Structures are given as structure tokens and as C-alpha cells.
Amino acid sequence: MIAELSVEKLRKKCDTQSLGCESSAEVGTLQAIIGQERAVRALRFGLGIKDKGFNVYVTGMPGTGRTTAVKRFLEEIARKAPTPPDWCYVNNFRDPYRPEALRLPAGKAAGFQADVENLVRVTIRDIRNAFESEEYAADREQTVKTFQQQKTEVLERLNQEAQGEGFLLKPTPMGLISVPLHKGKPLTEEEFLTIGQDERDEIARRQQKVNEMLETSLRQARGLDRSAQEALQKLDQEVALYAIRHQMEHLKPAYQDLPEVLSYLEQVQQDMLAHISDFKAEPEEAEAQLPFPIPAAKHEPGRRYAVNVLVDNSSCQGAPVILELNPTYSHLFGRIEQEAQFGALTTDFTLIRRGSLHRANGGYLVLPVEDVLLNSLSWDSLKRALENREITIEDAGERLGFAVTKSLRPEPIPLDVKVVLIGRPDLYQALLAYDEKFIELFKVKADFDTQIPRTEENLGNYVAFVSTLCNDEALHHLDASALSRVVEYGSRLAEDQEKLSARFGEIANVIREANYYAGLENSQLVTGAHVHKAIEERYYRSSLIQERIQEMITRGLIKIDVSGSEVGQVNGISVLQLGDTSFGQPNRITVSVGLGHEGLIDIEREARLGGPIHTKGFMILSGYLAERYTQDKPLNLSARLVFEQSYSDVEGDSASSTELYAILSALSGLPIKQGIAVTGSVNQKGEVQSIGGVNEKIEGFFETCRLNGLHGEQGEHSEHSEHSEHGVIIPESNMTNLMLKEEVIEAVNKGIFHIWAVKTIDEGIEILTGVPAGQRQEDGSFEEGSVNDRVNWRLKQMAEMLLYFGKDREERDKEEREDEEDKEGEENKEGKE
After folding, report:
1. Are 78 and 318 in contact (CB under 8 A)?
2. SS3 per residue for 224-250
3. Residues 578 and 672 in one domain
4. Residue 125 falls within a domain, yes or no?
5. Which residues contact 81 (CB under 8 A, 6 or more apart)?
6. In a domain, 497, yes or no
7. Helices and strands, counts by H and E, the chain
8. What is the pLDDT of residues 229-241, one digit of tens each?
9. Which of 740, 774, 808 lies at the terminal end of a domain, its last residue?
10. pTM, rounded to two decimals
């Protein structure tokens, strides 16, 4: 018989002494990504290389702590990187619809904004004070008076010349006109008609001359008006320039090394001089001249000179690391806001808002790829930005090609950023297959594993992770017993005694729940009992379906035998995955064998309930039977196999060894112990192969046995306890995956539950039947009375019977007569002897 597994092999304990601390409070914070050397090397490469397209795609399953670990890793690298520049948008005085972008050294933008705001405020104040001063009023009055005097002299001279020609200049609404004089008085129309023709012609000639002089003088007067206006404008500019220049000369030295800023300040000065009239009146005075009020922001004369700080890195230590969890188009690329004015929406450069790309420019941007792909505009625009290395802010509707109202087109900002996408492996493969630009822009793959080796170094990092979590979230620290429980739970999640799970999200949730139970008991530290309770409560909250199934088994609604022996019937174990929980469920597998040529028939497949992997595993059984038993005879049988009371799809090959045991039992006629369940796949050579969910399968069958009476738990009152042996047969290759619950280990320790690990079908059938499997002899036969001998004999018998029934009646009668004659001859011979 195959020896069962000892208690020590069912769960790898974590010795508290190996942790090197009494509690997590003694351990420092986590400084590195735990056990992900491959991913770390990929990250370092992708972040270190500066060439175009070497952005990083971090793959891994959700819950492995990818996002948190990557963000911390980036922050550590970013601290040593130079701080990127600030960015501002300012008015483009030549084309207001295309605001200009200004680059300033890190931390300078806010100061520049304040300097310009102060410059405009003080300059406007000084200009208004200058225009309201007595000196300006006197200069303006003198200038006006000078040109008015010159204009008066021109008009007086014109009047004298007109009088010399016998005309009077008379002002009318249409301007000055010349009126002829007669005897010192204006000539009336009636008097003009009474004079002779010669005299009228003379008056017309002289009037023509006077009109020409009038036109010349009026041109001189208009020229003097223009000169006066220009003189006044020059006076205003001289006064304003004095006020502006004083402030500019004070401001420019601070930006001597920034030519773009100095150029902008020169443009501000020129624009102020071109719009002096905007500064003369107070806003209240300007508004009073309108029949309706307008928003204050719109009539502020200094708004056109404001500095819109888009990115301010004054508080950034090193390069920025931005995690954008809602990567919509506007969140990534910014937006241009609008204000309502007079029932219409208006905008200007001061309403440009930044996006995550602006904040991360010069540093690192972390994005969840699933959310980016859900926003198709975000994904396409992100690729365009990375390819062109610039950030363009535009209306989303315009980006989609829709007709929109006229808006701003801000100058693009150069982009220098490392984008780190975080997503599932299947999305990475899909992007590789369907997006040709993807591999050009994301050339580095950092693959996060769900498991890490259970080494001494990683144990220390596990404890450091716990300490960091407790410090960050103000949780109670864990004592050594609790830490050892967390480590064991990590191996349980990894389903490997030599591994730890990298699903740190789930580990963290267990610690938080254990902290809750510690708080209820007013415990200063979280103990192993608190962690155990947290794990059990998590399992209990999700185990309603399992309890209902176990209840149906106990009540006999689902027929599962855990005592006695049956021919052609064996208990298999499947794993049900229901959202956040998975558990093992026993299944009765039966087989019926008869004569026929059909071979092995999978009823699940015939009913279209068997999946392709299950069908493959079942078809392998024919290969095993053919190689083992039919070297000297045909495989003539009809064996129908089914999962009893199974009404849903059956998938996977983990029951193939179970099915084979049922077939061997049916062929050999040897009963199988119903208290033993089986799991494991098989190949054509009869080797039992590993399967998944081994812990859940063992625990699921253990629970069924416990509810139906384990020997030692219900004692003498159990009807079959004295004659029943309970346990599970697993593949030997799954031994390293065992991290069973304490209650199962305790039952094994008491000898009321057993776990065997087998390599071959022969080892498994010996446990199930209690009969040796039997080795093949030199003559090709098997050991007499063994399982294989019985199967071989049954298959031979079935082949002969089919051969017999395949002949015609006369041939069968002849053979029967010959057999009877041979039998009579042997009896006569024995009688004579």
C-alpha cells in the first residue's frame, strides 16, 4: 500500500523565529518592490532610456499591488531627477485666438504671474494719476491752446482775404460758405437777380477764387486738428511711457536670462501704449456709460496682460509622478473653459486649464489602461501626443471633427514624459494584435508575477509591507504570531509551499479586518488569532452556496456516498468558482460496461455538456487502455461514463484519473471505497498529473465527510464509521501546493482523515480497492488476482464473446458440438483412469 502523507507535508508553517522581530513595529518601511526582479529591471530600463517610444506597459493581474508599487518606485527615481520647468499661457497680442506658451524655470511661474499682475496694477495706477495731475492738464491745455491759436489765425487770415474780395464767410451746418457783399452788406437773392450779367459773372469769378482760398485754409485747419491730436497722443504716450518704463526697468533684470519673457514684456509695453485710453477712466466710469452691466472680469483693462499659470512645479522635489485614475480626454489634455456673457459663451486665454499630461511633463504619468481604452478619444490623442512629442489643447468636439463655434488654439507645449500603462496581460496581447502604433510607443513590458519565492529576503519584505501598511493607515501592528499567519496565508493564496502570493491587495484586506477584531478586544497588537478569525470570517461571508450544496448532500438530495464500497463508482472533486470565493464539491462518477464496439462513451460530451479540455482528457483514457491491455486483442467494449446529477458544463481534465479508476473498477469487478475521493489528470502512460485547486478540493470533500460522520468525531453513533476510511488521493506533483486548513490537518493528525499522493494509476487503484495493481510478467500476463489481471481477463473475455456472437449460426452450432465432443472425450478419459 502507498503510504499516506504526514501532517508536516500538508502545510508549511512559518516559524516566528525566522521573522527576526517581535512585531511589525520593529521593522522599517518597505523600500522596494517585493520579489519582482524581472519587472524592476524592465522598469529601470524603460525609465532610463530617453529615446522615443520607450514607454512602459506594466502587466499583471489586479490585486497584485502593481499600481502602488510602481508609483512608489517612480517616486524614488523621480526624487533624483531634475525638476521640470513651469509653463504659462499669455495673450498673443497679434492673434488673440492663438495664446502663446511661455517656459520658465521651475518655481518661477507663480512669481512671474505676481510680478506681471503688480506691474499692470501699479502701471495703471501711475498712468491714471499722471493723467489726473495738474502738470498733465496744463501741458494738455497748452498744447490744445497752441494749435487752436494757429487754427484761429488761419481762419482770420482767410476771412480778411475773403473780405478783400468782397465776400463774407458764413458758418452753416454744412460748413463755411462765401456770401458776396454789396455796399458792405450781404447780397440777397433778389438783389443778385437785379444786377447786370457782367457784374454777376464778376461776382462768380471772385467767389470761385474765395472758395479755393477757403478750401486751402480748411485743409490747413484740419491738418492743425490732426497735429493737435497727434501732439496730444504723443503727450499721452510720453506720460504713459514714463510710468510704464519705470516699472519695466525695475522688473526686467529678474528675467534677464529668459529672452521669451523679455520679448513678452516688450509686447506688453507696446500694447499698453497702444491702448492708453483703456487706462484713463476707472472701471465704474466706463461701466456707467453702458446701458447694462457687464461682468467685472471682462472690463478689467489688465486682464489682457494676465499670466495664466498652467504648471507650477515650485513644490515639486525632483520630477513629478502623476497617477491619473480617471483618464478622460479633458483630464489628460486639459480644456478651455467658457463664460456666459450677454447670453453667449465667450472665452480667452485665462480660461485655459491644464491636464495630467501638463502636470506630468518632464516626469512620469501612470495610467490604468482599461480606463484609457474606454475613452477612445483619450487613447488616440495620447498616442498622437507621444508620437509628436507635444501637448495640444483643443475642444473635444473639434477633435472629433464636429462643427464648433470659434474657439482658441493655444500654442502646443513640448512633451517630455514617460507614460506607464498598467493593465492585464490579455489587454497587452490585444493591443499588440490590433493597434500597430502600440508597439512603437510602448516598447518596454514589465511583467508582474502573482507569485514570489518564499525566501528569507522576501519574508523580510513581507513583514516590511505589513509595517508600511500599518504606519500608512494607522493600524495596530502585528505580533510575530500574526505575521507568521500572514505569511502562511500568502502561501495559501499562491497555492505553493515555496511561494508567496503577490496579491497584496487581498493580503492588506486581511490585515485591515484583523485590525478590526483586535480593536474590538482592545488589543495593542494584532495576534495570530485575530488574523485567523479574519480569514475564517472572509470565508464564512462567501460560503452560503457551499453550505447549501453540503446540506443537499447531507439530506440525500445530491447522492454522494462516503462509506462502503461500490463497483464502477468513485467520488471525484471539482472546484466551483463563484465570484470572490471558490470551494471544492464532490461529484459521483459512475460507469457501466457491456459488450459492444462503441468503446468509451462520454455521456457529458454526447449531451454537449463536456468542454474540449474535458473531452481531451476522456479520450486519453482509450489510449491508456489500448497500450496497457490490448496488445494481443481488440478493445471490444461499450463503457458509458457520466457525472451523476451534473446539469451544467463540465470542463477540465482533473477528473480523468477518477474516470479511469471507475472504468478499471467496472472491468475488474472490484469495489471502490466510497470514503476516498480522487483528483488528478492522467496521460496515456498511466502517470497521474497535477491539477489546480488541490486545497479547495481536499477541504470540500473533508467537509462532506465531516457532515456525514467522520470516525472519531461522532464515535460509536456513526453507522459506518468503524468500516469507513476517509481521505483524498492527489497527484504527487501537487504535494508542494498543499496549504490546508488547520481543521483538516488536525483530522489527519488524529488518523480520521487521510491524504495520499500517487504517481501512477496503479498506485491509486491499490488504495481505492485494497487489491494490488499487479505488474506485467515476462510472458505478458499480469500477477494473478491483481487489478490489472482481472481487467485484462475481462477484456479478453469480452473480445472472445463478441467474436463468438459475430459468427453465423451454423458455425456456432458446429463449435458447440465440437466443444461437447471434446468435453465428453475428456470425461470418458477421466472415467477410464
Report:
1. yes
2. HHHHHHHHHHHHHHHHHHHHHHHHHHH
3. yes
4. no
5. 318, 319, 363
6. yes
7. 29, 30
8. 777 777 777 777 7
9. 774
10. 0.77
